[in-house]
Amino acid sequence: MNRIDKCARLTRHLRNSEHFEFYEEIFEFVEKHKSALGNMLGLWSAFAGVFKKEDRIYKHNRRVAETRLVMEADAKRLNAWMALKRGMEMASYKDDDAQRTAAKTLAFVLDNYRKIRTAPLVEASALIFNLAQDLRRPVYAASVETLGLTEAVNTLEACNEAFKALYEAREMETERAIMQGNMQYIRPLVDKAFAAFTEALNVFCVISSLEGKTAEAAALNAIINRINAAILQYKTIYARRSRGASPEESPAL
Fold first, then answer.
1. How far apart (Å, rounded) are the C-alpha atoms in residues 86 and 99?
2. The model's pTM
3. Angstrom distance (rounded) from CA 227 to CA 210
4. Domain chopping of the chain, boundaries
5. From CA 92, how far away is CA 104, in angstroms rounded?
6. Element (H, E) at 171
7. Which of 106, 107, 153, 164 is the most exposed place for a label (fewest CB within 10 A)?
8. CA-CA distance, 131 to 128, in Å (whole number)?
9. How many other CB atoms are there within 10 angstroms of residue 52's CB atom?
10. 18-49 tens-digit pLDDT
């Protein structure tokens, strides 16, 4: 029987954009599978109601806060990503066996990061960071060098760091000037409603398993697994930004 991981400390420490995107991922999945919730529909509806308020507040403020420089920086790093990807793809058509082999090796790596172009801004930053780290691993670095893509990797990483610097500076300004008040009010309400829903979900999953309701337990476990995947993803994002700090709650809490 699965249980939803603790995430109260995590959600308190996420930035407004991360807080919204974290719950948005969960909301979209559970909403599609809410027929499995049974008696928990009331708690889910309570969460959905306050989250939709956060959705309106965040999206309104985000539109106000968007800046040309941040969007230009994002476009530059996406161009750098495409240049790296196309350099690998072009090498796969060359007559040189070593280059074709290297291209095939890198194609496997880059395929794991195909979401970079469509991922939310924060997630794209983490994906590009991970990709650069992977391509510098000894097992892949030789292939990068064989294809002459070392500079392309450096450019992608530099563009990503430039974007992150602009994005974080904008976040600091807009958090204070625009977003802080409304988001500061709604975030605790969303967190509280989510905690009530997940506590009930854990209990109902245990009850379903004990009563031998296999299909019901499986459906609830699928929801729990998806929520835990989102929690792990955003714990990783937070930990990287905090230089290794973990938002996990201590056993005493």
1. 14
2. 0.54
3. 22
4. 8-65+179-241, 68-169
5. 7
6. helix 150-174
7. 107
8. 5
9. 12
10. 999 999 999 999 999 999 999 999 999 999 99
